[in-house]
Amino acid sequence: MIRINDVQISYKDKNDIVNAVKGVSFDINEGEYLALIGPAGSGKSTLLAAIAGMLIPDKGDIVINKYKLKKISRTKRALVRARQYGIILQFSEMVNRFTVAENLYFSWYAANRGVSETDFHDRLNRLTDRLDMKNLLDSFPAKLSGGQMQKAAIARAFIKNSPIILADEPSGDLDPANIEKVKELFLEENAEGKTIFLVTHDMKLAFDAKTIYEMKDGRLCDLIKHD
Ligand SMILES: Nc1ncnc2c1ncn2[C@@H]1O[C@H](COP(=O)(O)OP(=O)(O)O)[C@@H](O)[C@H]1O
Ligand SMILES: [Mg+2]
Questions:
Q1: Using an 8 Å Cβ cutoff, are 55 and 7 in contact?
Q2: What end-to-end distance do the CA atoms of the chain give, in Å?
Q3: Strand locations in the chain (E)
Q4: What does the pLDDT look like over 18-71, one tens digit per residue?
Q5: What is the CA(46)–ligand 1 centre distance, in A?
């Protein structure tokens, strides 16, 4: 379980302070499919980055399993991130000198050292099948279109088989046919037990979630759906 407890996050730019997240609390339970919607600038990506341990709140705590993210070292946070999370960011970075398949392998290996490589190949086959992206595997990331990159980033997050997926606008660059594939993949992986925290503008995607929160101006303002 992830507990987000009165989290406040601000950005300081020279003389300017932006209070991006203004005291947000909720839990993400194991196996839950939770979506967060809200207008641009409402603090969704900031909150997701904090849950991912990529930035530390000014106030409040994020606790994943027994780890209080702000109390552990950067290295330990990186380990927690590698093992617990598959993360899809809005601007995903791949290692450009390696192919998409190699990038996926690195992601898998970081979380599955000691596991048989058959697991990597099984998951690779399944994901390339689900996302229809076999043709991308030998490409170098710099050659991909925005939509192709997004599919590669989604595959990279799921291939690790980590218990939790954090996804920030994973369908923003995709056409309707590909959005449908992503929608089905998320549902299938959640049905198999993965916890999903999804930030999205796409209500078609959001409505698959069991719980939908809306964020406005740094605060959770609405619980739209709860099963
Ligand atoms: N690196 C940054 N430096 C300064 N301000 C930022 C930074 N990132 C985001 N912000 C500001 O924080 C607020 C929340 O941004 P963000 O979390 O990206 O919102 P959302 O994902 O909901 O669009 C916005 O006002 C945005 O301009
Ligand atoms: Mg955002």
A1: no
A2: 18
A3: 2-13, 16-28, 33-37, 59-64, 67-68, 85-88, 164-168, 195-199, 211-216, 219-225
A4: 999 999 999 999 999 999 999 999 999 999 999 999 999 999 999 999 899 999
A5: 6
Determine the CATH number of domain 2-225.
3.40.50.300
Instruction: Please identify which residue in the block is written with the tokens 């660059």.
Output: 173
In contact, 5 and 62? CB cutoff 8 Å: yes
User: CA distances (Å), 215 to each of 23, 78, 193, 205, 226, in order?
Assistant: 11, 27, 26, 17, 15
Nearest atom of ligand 1 to the alpha carbon of 42? 22
Number of Cβ within 10 Å of residue 203's Cβ equals 11
The number of helix segments (H) and strand segments (E) in the chain equals 7, 10
Write the single-letter amino acid at 191. Answer: A
Residue of 12, 36, 45, 46 to mutate, ligand 1, most atoms within 8 A of C-beta: 46
Per the CB < 8 A criterion, the answer to whether 62 and 51 are in contact is yes
Q: What is the model's pTM?
A: 0.96
Q: Tally the C-alpha atoms within 13 A of residue 55's C-alpha that lie toward its C-beta.
A: 16
Rounded CA gap, 115 and 111, in Å? 9
Instruction: Write the residue with the smallest CA distance to atom 5 of ligand 1.
Output: 11
Distance CA 138, CA 129 (A): 15
pLDDT tens for 81-133 read 999 999 999 888 899 999 999 999 999 999 999 999 999 999 999 999 999 99
Segment (H or E) for 118: helix 117-130
